[in-house]
Sequence to fold (205 residues):
Amino acid sequence: MKYRIPILLFSQERAFFLARAFRKRRSLIETQLIFATRELMIKLKSGVPIFNALLDIAMGDYGLVSSEFKIAAEEIESGIPQDIALDNLSRRVPSQSFKRTIDIMLNAMRSGSDLAATLDIINDMLVRKQQSDMQAYAGELTPLSMGYMLIAVVVPSLGMSVFLILGSMAKINVTLFIYFIPALLIMFEVLFIGLVKSRRPAVGV
Fold:
């Protein structure tokens, strides 16, 4: 029983950091995804074979997107069919936008459709999604800003005034409380900044 609480706390902390790492990885991928698909579309329109275009993305400067395409390119070079390697890529990445992009590419390749035109549509879809995410994020900032003003500005000012009045009437030493408030405000601001950053969508437009 005495070991159960520390183990539970460790498990919760580990789950929190794993979830945070997952979100960060997804965000880094989605930030570069539009640029990678745009270059892939341009290369295919200019007549570059699909494998060479994938290899260029793998050797490019697109962060985790390039790293994932590099794994897919290595699988293709080892003899795995292109569609299987791309399907493995779709299953491996944590980003739903990336998964959807690869799945649409696979459908176009297997059906014999124009892959460059398909990538053009995908790129437009990704841009619209990011614009929609930013509009939703802007809508969330208004109540967050109101809450910040209320908690960080209004409540401390009124609370300090009320506490000083009550403290003087009850003859309570309020010095410790006065020094304690800035620490609480700093902690709140750090948490608020973390909340705002965590809610910000990945943008690569």
Remarks:
- The two ends are 53 Å apart (CA to CA).
- The CA atoms of residues 183 and 189 lie 10 Å apart.
- The chain has seven helices and no strands.
